[in-house]
Design goal:
CATH superfamily of chain C: P-loop containing nucleotide triphosphate hydrolases
Strand content of chain C: 25-35%
Chains: A mainly alpha, B mainly alpha, C alpha/beta
Number of helices of chain C: 9
Shape of chain B: globular
Shape of chain C: globular
Order of helices and strands of chain C: EEEHEEHEHHHEHEHEEHH
Order of helices and strands of chain B: HHHHEEHHHHHHH
Largest sheet of chain C: 6 strands, mixed
Number of domains of chain B: 1
Radius of gyration of chain B: 20 Å
Number of strands of chain C: 10
Number of strands of chain B: 2
Distance between the termini of chain C: 28 Å
Radius of gyration of chain C: 18 Å
Number of domains of chain C: 1
Oligomer: heterotrimer
CATH topology of chain C: Rossmann fold
Structural class of chain C: alpha/beta
Strand order of the largest sheet of chain C: 6-7-8-3-9-10
Strand content of chain B: under 5%
Structural class of chain B: mainly alpha
Distance between the termini of chain B: 48 Å
Largest interface: A-B, 45 and 44 residues
């Protein structure tokens, strides 16, 4: 009786997920064997953006909160890693490991700090912005992100508008973060972990309330849910995950700059979510890969690739409603 | 005396923001569309004005070319893209107009190159006048203020004295009523959009001689425009006017005086750093505080 | 009569200068089925909105179970034990019938800050939900999404959701509006059944049902209470006839 209504994922979904994970697992050796190693760093960046886009999807796709300031969380995460590393390097506390090229700071300290600070920022701004709806919410999240953007620009000791270059990646016991392949698999692992978490979350009681808020928040309040708390917690969780993505991005690229949290970055994250499919688990991952690789591919043909990408986005909105993933997997919203 | 000058600077930024937000707030209020690409028309106005002025040597000709160019571009965009988005949710609107920004920014780079253009202040507006004994202020900036007053008056007359204006206003409060009155809504929307982009083009054109004309120049003013609209109340032109002046003053005055004020309590270096940091965030802090008190903005347009 | 379950005292509300409701007094005894009737635009839905907290009141007080709930947010009132069905049905389009009711069950079961266990396979939620779905006669539609339900099914689902929170007070907003005669009779039967279990405030246009089921009736005209009393008394009340039907005639 009760099993009948559990919407078990159908075989196309499982097939898609299996193929996707397999593809991501074999990607590094394949790139190496085919002589395309240079694409590994792009693939790693795509994984990191997939994590950020998935976190945005948690609030946007499942929670119906259209935030246009998500890059701020990434920026905060990135700057935490950058500043910690900068401080350690500058204070002469260089450990022997650091001299050998491994970073001076333990990732076990830097990454949780990045997540915590991003979550704290989400909490403070969420309390204000979640009181608003629709256009107001979009613009308030945007405004808060701008606030952070200008804050980092004004940090002259950390490079101001130029940002700063990190000496090397942080160290993690037992794992060599400096190895690009290892780093790729670490990012993949974190992404899959987060996706699994989101999957459980949205199907658990908490997620049912969150998705219900997307559909009709007032109805849920009349049912007896204090919806604000649920939305705020989701907002903080998403902020924390985006903070982690920011930290990873700083490690991967070896630099941080305010450009990482320019508002167009928030727009790009949103594009990834919508392009792939809002409110689906795999959508944002697909969207991140498609967008980043499309950029790379178009850039091979013309430096003015944005003049092509722009109309492609417009066409995607007008004609590919629901995103790529539902089209590929041949079904509607997956939960 | 410095204060007066800064006040005028703040007002002048306010005028720019008003020109940007007057059109955009109507698009928000009437069509319920989020248009991120509004800054592109600002940029377009600046580029067309700069180019025509450069080739013809006449600032007036540049102006005469920039306004219709921005208006027509707006009408085209409305006809081709925007009108298909009215029934969509905000998410789709954000995505599509974000794509338009990519397109327009890159298009200007293709046409005009990556180097910023510089526009001269026309000779008849160059120089400065003595406002009070000892205070000189650039004529050009005063002219901007004048244009702002003229546009505000024009919009006031349009909305209070003409049928078109009243229909637009009615459209912002209650779309169904207007449709029921048999007004050609599609045409009305197109006209409003064109008017809005024309005003954005006017702002861009006037900004030309003050700022560098470059791709992406519309993106930064766009965000300030959003702040203005949210503070003023979405859909309210009056709110846009008051909000624009408030934001213009807050931004300019904070930049001018905050470091000095902080020097009273901090060391000079620290005060300058903190002052600059807070000043650049001031507008957004102002907006957050403002919305905590009045979530619907200064002049909320009732949504029915 | 025992202590009233719900009490509205001089409640009023105006929208942009227009008084939609004024000096509303309403007392619901525990266990009764109280009907709220009145012509269109009389303010009946506004009264329900004020009771559930969707609309703030300008004046007056609302007491529920002896608590002053006048300034309480909707969710707190719901937790005290009121539930409501909506007239223009307010369903969650991507949820199935079963999921709707399970969510409502969840609302009545304390904190929903649970992040791991699938709610879809949680018997604590699904069993009571299935029971209620079956009770309103939607068992064979349990897996269907709300967006594809027929009008009558949506009404039934509204009632199922309201029941699932196990409320003491059930507020039904025109449950029969727009239904055909068969569904109408079925719903009337269900309301009659519920009457034995709970206190009900029923807003309804179908006079036959109202007079057949209600213990007491309150008549609302232009935002004012014109009369309250037993059905027979209301039927013969001249003021009601005048106000409601524009002249003396039989209801």
């Amino acid at each position: 009786m009760t099993r009948a209504t559990v919407t078990a994922p159908g075989w196309p979904v499982l097939l898609f997920a299996g193929c996707g994970i397999l593809f991501l697992l074999v990607l590094p050796p394949v790139l190496e064997l085919s002589g395309h190693q240079y694409l590994l760093s792009l693939a790693t960046r795509a994984l990191i953006y997939a994590l950020a886009a998935s976190s945005l999807n948690l609030i946007l796709g499942y929670g119906g909160m259209v935030s246009l300031g998500h890059a701020a969380f990434m920026g905060i995460g990135a700057y935490v890693v950058g500043i910690l590393s900068h401080q350690a390097a500058g204070s002469g506390l260089l450990s022997p490991a650091a001299v050998q090229g491994a970073g001076p700071v333990s990732a076990l300290m830097a990454w949780p700090a990045a997540v915590a600070l991003a979550m704290l920022f989400a909490l403070v701004t969420g309390v204000v912005s979640l009181r608003t709806r629709g256009m107001h919410f979009i613009m308030i999240t945007l405004a808060f992100a701008q606030m952070v953007y200008f804050f980092f620009i004004s940090l002259e000791s950390y490079g101001g508008s130029d940002g700063m270059v990190l000496a090397s990646r942080d160290r993690l016991p037992g794992i060599d973060l400096g190895d690009d392949r290892v780093f790729y698999y670490l990012c993949l692992g974190l992404l899959l972990l987060f996706l699994a978490f989101v999957h459980r979350l949205v199907n658990a009681r908490f997620g049912r309330v969150l998705v219900g808020c997307r559909e009709n928040e007032k109805r849920l309040q009349v049912l007896g849910f204090a919806t604000f708390g649920y939305r705020l917690l989701a907002y903080c969780l998403a902020g924390g995950a985006a903070g982690l993505a920011g930290a990873l991005l700083a490690e991967q690229g070896g630099y941080v700059s305010p450009a990482m949290l320019h508002w167009t970055r928030s727009g790009e994250l949103m594009v990834m979510v919508l392009l792939g499919g809002t409110g689906t688990l795999a959508g944002p991952v697909l969207g991140a890969f498609v967008l980043l690789f499309l950029e790379e591919y178009l850039a091979l043909y013309t430096e003015h690739w944005m003049v092509i990408l722009g109309p492609v986005l417009v066409l995607a909105v007008l004609f590919a409603r629901g995103g790529l993933y539902p089209m590929l997997a041949g079904h509607g919203r997956e939960r | 005396m410095f204060i007066l000058e800064q006040l005028l600077n703040g007002l002048q930024l306010g005028v720019m923001l008003f020109l940007m937000s007057a059109g955009l707030t109507l698009v928000f209020g009437i069509m319920r569309v989020i248009n991120l690409a509004h800054g592109s028309f600002y940029m377009l106005g600046a580029y067309v004005a700069a180019t025509v002025t450069m080739h013809s040597g006449s600032f007036l000709l540049g102006m005469l070319a920039a306004l219709p160019a921005a208006g027509l571009a707006g009408i085209l965009v409305e006809l081709i893209v925007l009108r298909r988005l009215y029934q969509r949710d905000h998410l789709d609107q954000v995505l599509a107009t974000f794509g338009l920004i990519f397109f327009f920014n890159e298009l200007t780079r293709m046409i005009w190159g990556r180097q910023p253009l510089f526009m001269e202040v026309p000779s008849w507006l160059a120089g400065s006048v003595e406002l009070l004994p000892g205070i000189r202020y650039p004529v050009y900036r005063l002219a901007i203020l004048l244009v702002g007053v003229v546009v505000a008056l024009f919009l006031y007359l349009l909305f209070s004295r003409t049928r078109l204006g009243m229909r637009i206003r009615a459209g912002a409060t209650n779309r169904e009523t207007v449709a029921a009155l048999g007004v050609n809504i599609r045409l009305l929307y197109t006209l409003v959009f064109g008017l809005g982009t024309m005003l954005a083009g006017l702002a861009g054109m006037m900004a030309g001689p003050i700022l560098a004309v470059e791709a992406g120049m519309g993106d930064s003013i766009l965000i300030l425009t959003f702040v203005v609209i949210v503070i003023g109340g979405i859909g309210s032109v009056r709110g846009a006017l008051v909000g624009a002046i408030l934001v213009g003053l807050v931004d300019t005055l904070a930049r001018a005086f905050l470091p000095g004020l902080l020097r009273l309590v901090l060391t000079t270096a620290a005060a300058d750093r903190a002052g600059a940091a807070i000043a650049s965030m001031s507008v957004y802090i102002f907006m957050a505080l403002f919305l905590a008190l009045r979530p619907a903005g200064l002049f909320p347009v009732s949504e029915s | 009569m025992s202590r009233p379950l719900l009490q509205l005292a001089d409640v009023g509300r105006s929208f942009s200068g227009l008084q939609v409701c004024r000096d509303i007094g309403l007392v619901l005894a525990a266990g009764e089925l109280h009907a709220l009737i009145g012509p269109n635009g009389a303010g009946k839905s506004t009264v329900l909105d004020m009771i559930t907290g969707l609309t703030a009141v300008d004046r007056g007080r609302i007491l529920f179970k002896g608590c002053d709930v006048t300034r309480m947010p909707p969710y707190a009132r719901a937790r005290l034990g009121m539930a409501r069905s909506f007239q223009a049905s307010a369903l969650l389009d991507s949820f199935t019938v079963q999921e709707h009711v399970a969510l409502a069950v969840q609302a009545g079961r304390g904190s929903s800050y649970r992040f791991w266990r699938r709610s879809g396979s949680d018997p604590e939620l699904q069993e009571p939900a299935a029971e209620i779905v079956a009770r309103v006669g939607l068992a064979d539609r349990a897996g269907v999404r709300a967006a594809t339900l027929a009008h009558g099914e949506r009404r039934l689902l509204e009632i199922a959701m309201a029941l699932a929170t196990r409320p003491d007070l059930l507020l039904l907003d025109e449950p029969m509006a727009g239904l055909g005669p068969v569904s109408c009779r079925r719903l009337a039967g269900m309301v009659r059944e519920l009457k034995a279990e709970r206190t009900i405030l029923l807003v309804e246009h179908d006079m036959e049902t109202v007079f057949a089921l209600a213990d007491r009736i309150t008549v609302l005209v232009q935002g004012r209470v014109v009369a309250t009393g037993r059905p027979e008394a209301i039927r013969s009340n001249r003021r009601v006839q005048e106000a409601y039907l524009g002249g003396p005639c039989s209801l």
